[in-house]
Structure formats: C-alpha cells, structure tokens
C-alpha cells in the first residue's frame, strides 16, 4: 500500500462541469484550428479530447514519431484555457501495422480476417499489437505528462473487439488453465460429457468457432469472460504506463452502453473515471428512458459522478434512417445526464467531418457552420452548464431502489438453445427500468453480490445464472426486511450454466413460495396471456405454489388458475412480463408499500424529476408545454428567477431548482 490517493473526475472538473468533445484537428488545415478555438470559447467549451484516431499521423511508419502538430495543439488549448483529455490512439492501428504484421488483425468466428480500412482492427491477444500500443503510449506519456493542458487520459476508444484467431486461441487456453487448473475441472464445468466433447489435452481447446450445430454454452460463456479480460488487459497495460508518468492524472476509457463483450462492473473498478457514450434515437418515444437507463447504470458503476464522453449534437450516421434532433432536445438530454450524475457533457465530435465514414455524423459545429442551429444550441447549453455547475458538480444522487444487473448472467442466458429466442436480456432489463422511470422512481443499478442494505426495494428483472454468494445476498436482503421483486428466468443456473435442480434454485423457490416449477411456457410474437387485471407478454410459467398467498393468476388456457404473480411476505415473483402500464403500476404499488415515493407527486406522464444533492431537475420530455406542481419557493438556476409552488415548462423545457 502506497497511501496514494486515487485520481478522480473531480481532479479534472475542479468545480466545473466539463463541456466539449472529441476534437480531430488533423482533418483540417491549421488555419481552421484558430477559428475552432474562437468558437469553442464562445460556446463555453472547457475540455477537448485529442488524438483518439491519430495513430497513423503520430507514427506514419514503424518507430517514427510526428509530435509537432500535437505540440502546437496542446499549447493552443492551454493558451485559451481549454483542458485536454489526451487519448492513446490504439483503437485504430495504422495500415502499415496490418500489412507488416498480419498477426495483429482479428479473425471472426468463421475464419475471416478483419482488415484495416475501418477501425478497431486489432487482436487483443496479439503480442505485436500490444508492443506497438505500449510504445506509442509510453512516448505520449513521456512527452505530454507534464503539459499544463493535460487534465485526463483517455485509453483507446470503445473497446469492442472479438478475436477467434490462433493467437487468441493460445491466450484462451492459458486463461482456461489459470481458471481451472486441470482438464477434469474444465470438462466438468463445460459439461463435455454431452455430445462426446471431453478434452484430453489443452491444445485441443479452441475458441467457439463456427460449428456444424450448436456451440457448447459453457465454452461460449467462458469465451465471453476471456474476451472481456483480454480487452481489460489491453486497457490496464496502457493505463499503468500513463499512470507511472502522471500518478495524479485520472484515466478513463469510454464504455458503449450495455455492450455484450465487456463486464463493465469489473472494468469500472479499474478506472479512475467511468465514462460512456449515449446515442438514443430522437424518434424513439422512449429515447429519454433509454438515456436514463444508461445514465443510472454508469453512475452506479462510478459510485458517483461520471463522464458523458460521447453523444450526438444532431443525427448519427449508422441507423437505417438518421433523424436530426428537434430544436431543444440536445439541451434537454444533456441536462438529463447532469441530473443523473454526469459531471462532464461531451460529444463526438467538435466539427463535423467533410470526409470519411462518419461525415454524416453530426458535430457541435455542423456542416452549416457557426450560423447553424446546432452550434447555436451548443452555445446555449454551454452557458446553461456554466450557470448550474457550482451547485451540482460533485453532488450525488440517493436512490432507494436498486435494479440488479450482471453481464455473466446475460452471457449465460444468451445461448443458442434457450427456451425462447424472443427473450433478449437487454429488452427485459429495459422493460423493468422503463416501468420504474415511468413511475418516476429514481433507481441505481447493482451487481447481485453488491451490498444491498442501502436500498428499500431491490428489483431483479432477470438473472438467469446466479452464484451461491449472489443468492445468499438476495436472501439476506429479503430476510433483513427489504422488498425483493424478481422476474422470470431468475436463478435457473449456477455460474457454470449448470441448471439447478427444480429449474430454479431451491432457496429462491422457498423464498417466493413456489413448490414446483413444472414448465416454462414461452409466448410467440404478438401472443399474450390473460392474467387477473392485466395481460402478460413474452413468457409464462406453470407454477404450483407452496403457499396460497399469490396476487394474480393466469386466466384461461393451459395455465388457468395458476399463479402469475406470487408474493410471500416482502418477496415477489413475476412469472411473465406484464404489459408496460401493468408493470409500472405493480412496481409503483410495491415501492409505495415499502415507503418509496417519487421526488414529486402527481407528475405529468412526460415529465421527469430527479434530485441531485439539493438541486431538483424538472424535465419535460413532451412537445407540449406543461405546468408542474413544485411545493415551496425555489430559484431556477437556468434563468435566475424565483419559482413558487409551480413551474411551467415549454416543449422540451427544463428547470433546475435550488431551494
């Protein structure tokens, strides 16, 4: 133990809300740089990320270094009071690397090489790639570690690479030997007695490449874990280099929300700053809820303030149809992120590209230039963030509800041969979070083995695979007086994807009052099942209760009279996915019985209210004006005006109220 204080986001914010985005000046002639700085200052930009995709410019040929342009930019930013989040450029290797070292290129499950010409074309297990990545990181850290513009390090970008090639296969075998020790242990964990898959030597084990028929689910599960770990090794190797040069400068790498290949709980423990990219669809009526889900999850991973590394000021370019953001929506969603704990609001990117694959992805300065609506709205947002920063930066959010989420449970449940391919874990998770959001209940996310005692209500949308420690944690929470609500397909398997006797862990069946879970009855697309007071979707179960205390039964069909929702004390089990309004009402009622209520009562449907510290954010996600009852007298930090008992919000309007 060195006693050194770990760097944090607060070391970069210094009482401000960071505002800015990815800046890629290498795409532009130098005379544009000075115009960019002028526009940044006018917009209140105080932070830019440099160098994310600059490897070929920094190292145009093996071992060469071209730092002069970056020296100029670092100095230019410092002279104008703009901090730099300096990236290592290792997410996009130069073309020469793949040409000279084809071992650095990833291979798909069906044996195809992913060539240069895009990005993320690196093998996480390649010793050659790691050597080059470490060298450029070392030189960047040595050159700029003492530069006064540097506020944070940004390692790589959106780690998201799978690799099934030979070098990855060798690394997978090493990872498995370290985990299991013996082939007997591996064969038992993977259930290789099925389909004659028993391994007699380590060299016979491969990644789950494309087979004739279904893959071994235990092998796939471990390969998911391995991939997350290998990418994490790449991150920590570069992090440790920059940390050695700048021990007091925080380090981050940006998550893609709910990406299947990365256990973000484990990653967050290795980051000084947890950052994420959020791109809701402006046409999605639940876009704000999807944003809130990612914000709640990221705040929970950070255990406090977090960084919105990327969002779009306008349209993206990777949906089938890429809609722009209506006037006011960019501001609203940015304030929503701050309301839910963000201390940094940033974009990809500063100036919209004129060439390349993302030239139709918006920038803070769009193709319309400084006179365009996008930049004018960015200027307004910059002023808004400066006004509210002193009252919100560093403040925390208190939630009395926790939603449990685990990547390992997701990975285990996503196997090919599951009872219903229509049951997609992220969709179930979103449905339960949507119900809480529409009930105006702020929630955290938690890992099933985290301390749950701070919460009154714990919600488990679906955790197919649970460790014994996780199950004991749920039991302790419920027996300690907490209210536990579990959805279907929870506790079915252990951490090796071995189905527990009875189709659900016996301890959980006892907790919920289930004598026998006879069968799972998945539903077809468009099919619903009638229940007392609502309709269920997606799934149903044939349950024989041990106790008569159930609150809703199935009506009609094979399951007529059998329990759809069971309750035993403070433990609830929901064996279907109720339609959205029904799930909202159920969770609101359960939370209310546990003493958990919204921040404001009587909120209109499209209005969101979140309390951050002592500051109340009231956000209108509707296109029509609305009046919200806010008892007492407050000052709106956005306008400086006094608000007594009620506030009127225009289309996509917001108020940030201090008592």
Describe this structure in words.
This protein is an alpha/beta fold and 659 residues long. The protein has three domains: 10-162 and 247-392, Glycosidases (TIM Barrel); 401-593, Rossmann fold (3-Layer(aba) Sandwich); 607-658, Sandwich (Immunoglobulin-like). It is 33% helix and 19% strand. The chain contains 18 helices and 26 strands. The strands form five sheets. The protein has a nine-stranded parallel sheet. Helix 6 (127-144) runs parallel beside helix 9 (217-245), helix 12 (329-339) packs parallel to helix 13 and helix 15 (425-438) crosses helix 18. The radius of gyration is 26 Å and the shape is globular. It starts with 9 loop residues before the first helix and ends with a strand. The mean pLDDT is 97.
Low-pLDDT parts are none
Q: Please name the fourth-level CATH homologous superfamily of the largest domain.
A: Glycosidases
Rg: 26 Å
The first-to-last residue Cα distance is 43 Å
Work out the helix count.
18
- The 3D shape can be described as globular
Number of strands: 26
CATH architecture of the largest domain: Alpha-Beta Barrel
Oligomer: single chain
Q: Find the CATH topology of the largest domain.
A: TIM Barrel
* CATH class label of the largest domain: Alpha Beta
Sheet of most strands: 9 strands, parallel
Approximately how much helix is present in the residues?
25-40%
What proportion of the residues form beta strands (DSSP E)?
15-25%
Overall mean pLDDT stands at 97
Arrangement of strands in the largest sheet: 5-4-3-2-1-9-8-7-6
Catalytic activity: Hydrolysis of terminal non-reducing beta-D-galactose residues in beta-D-galactosides
Domain Beta-galactosidase trimerisation: 399-596
Domain Glycoside hydrolase family 42 N-terminal: 22-387
Keywords: Glycosidase, Hydrolase
